[in-house]
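1st attempt posting a full record on here, be nice pls
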Amino acid sequence: MRDHGAVLDWVSLLVGALRAVFHRRRALVLENVLMRQQLAVALRTRRRSRVRWHDRIFWVMVQRLCADWRRHLELVQPETVLRWHRQGWRLFWWWHSRRPAGRPRLPREVRDLIRRLSEENRLWGTERIRGELHKLGIAVGNGSIRRYRWRPAPRPPTQTWGTFLRNHAHAIWAADLLAVQTLTCRTLYVLFFISHGRRELIRVAVTAHPTAACVWRQLVEATPWGRHPKYLARDRDRVYGGDSVRRATRLGIDTLLTPYRAPKANAIAERVVRTLRNDCLDHVLILNERHLRSVLAEYVAYYNTERLHRSLALEPPLPASRSPVPTGVISSRPVLGGLHHVYHRAA
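the predicted structure (as tokens):
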């Protein structure tokens, strides 16, 4: 019995060894076939190897039959083979069904009748046309009527507000007012005009009683010797006066009135209001009207000649003509008592 058990052990070991040898040879042959197929695709005459439909079918079959096919794949990603399999599955079922999807189209006569009714009665809506068709014994849904009804030719596209502002930035000024509270609880108003092209503050005026006459005088003083913009963008505040548009037209200025409650339509002016507050007014305690004029005059000079703007490629609105000096001692000049500083190299 012991001899028979030893023989069985030797036979099982021999069978296992033979199976391992054949299994390794099978894996080696499979790997050789897969690598040769990818090499044939890569060595085609095209400059860029292109996977054809029979290559896709080959790898879809390999993906179904070989468990470790991912290890031998070098030409494409494994996700690509899975995508090919899904596409082939959809193509198979499309071929298997071979039936047109969706509901059948309306007869030609009904489509022509829908177009005729909508074209001859342009005030009729979809429901009204459906009612007329129902009177004629034709049952059609609203979706089909909307699909086949007559529509006027589309209007040519027009430029948006933002495109208009960018195209005419060199010829547009913006105007706005902001309120400033003083130490004695008085309210002063700042009126400014800024150019869209270089973001230059053209004029900044301070008043305690803003009226239409005051605003008009500031506009006239900001446009001496024929220097005026083609367009002036502003909101619909009553402080400008009821006849301000007509009076500005006599100066050659077209007024662009922004919509109600749309601050983004005059975004440059609104941004300057925020800049004036963040850079200057929120850090200075204003005493009176004279003090506010002095503070704003100093800040406007700094804003136009020294303050850098991202929209101007880090240049000020009125850049200096001097060229930068690469060497020399760096010195600074305080602005508004040290709230800001201007740096330059000594020549």
